[in-house]
Amino acid sequence: AQSVSQHNHHVILSEAASLELGCNYSYGGTVNLFWYVQYPGQHLQLLLKYFSGDPLVKGIKGFEAEFIKSKFSFNLRKPSVQWSDTAEYFCAVRMDSSYKLIFGSGTRLLVRP
Amino acid sequence: NAGVMQNPRHLVRRRGQEARLRCSPMKGHSHVYWYRQLPEEGLKFMVYLQKENIIDESGMPKERFSAEFPKEGPSILRIQQVVRGDSAAYFCASSPRRATTYEQYFGPGTRLTVT
Q1: Which chain A residues are Cβ-neighbours of B48 within 8 angstroms?
Q2: Sign of dihedral through CA atoms A65, A71, A73, A79?
Q3: Average predicted confidence (pLDDT) for chain B
Q4: In chain A, what's the furthest Cα-to-Cα distance?
Q5: DSSP collapsed to 3 states, A62-92
Q6: Is residue B109 within 8 angstroms of chain A, CB to CB?
Q7: Three-state SS for B28?
Q8: Is A70 in CB contact (< 8 Å) with chain B?
Q9: What does the pLDDT look like over B11-66, one tens digit per residue?
Q10: Does A53 reach chain B within 8 Å, measured CB to CB?
């Protein structure tokens, strides 16, 4: 079955540390890839998305992600995190021409000031 | 520029009661998607609706769950005779057209607790 894996469920970092959150999916066809963020008490917001073209995608708030097709991965990165990045991060995949998003289980990031 | 609205944000029901969750899509959006997030799990697709039509309900439990998106008014996700296992966060998303190339915009979710 198609699935999305986020291996880090909880991550704790100090401010200014670098961040990398892993996301892997299991599907051999065409995919669209997304990272969403949910700040405490707020709705899911789109951080960035990949549809085609340059596999290195830049998003909002200094986040970026790289699509590596051979590894079925779409890892999220930020060179220097801030306390305000404390949130839950979800990777999502849309496969072929489906409208359904398949989500990973999320990663809770806590950034200590 | 209002986003996707969901109400209530928190809902507590006793076992056997009914739960009604409402979702108002973004202005100009006519496609609505419901997802459910069980504790410690990712969001899982439940149903996709357009105005007055259910397009795909393959993720809905076979019994007690129903959804509608009338011509006027919000989309409603209805859970009859709730059980403890229904406790979850229910998210609604909308898109201007069928979301094969459009992103989905999410609401804040409704957290249902069944006691």
Answers
A1: 99-100
A2: negative
A3: 92
A4: 42
A5: HCEEEEEHHHCEEEEEECCCCHHHCEEEEEE
A6: yes
A7: coil
A8: no
A9: 999 999 999 999 999 998 989 999 999 887 889 999 999 999 999 999 999 899 99
A10: no
Alpha carbon of A100: minimum distance to chain B alpha carbons (Å): 7
Q: How far is CA B111 from CA B6, B65, B77, B86, in A?
A: 10, 16, 13, 10
Please say whether the beta carbons of A93 and A24 come within 8 A: no
Which residue from B59, B91, B98 is facing A44, i.e. has the nearest CB? B91
**CA A9 to CA A89: how far, in whole Å?**
10
Pairwise CA distance, residues B91 & B33, whole Å? 8
Determine whether the interchain pair A105/B42 forms a contact, defined as Cβ–Cβ distance below 8 Å.
yes
Place of tokens 């401010």: A15
Residue of B nearest to A48 (CA): B103
Query: What one-letter code names the amino acid at B109?
Result: G
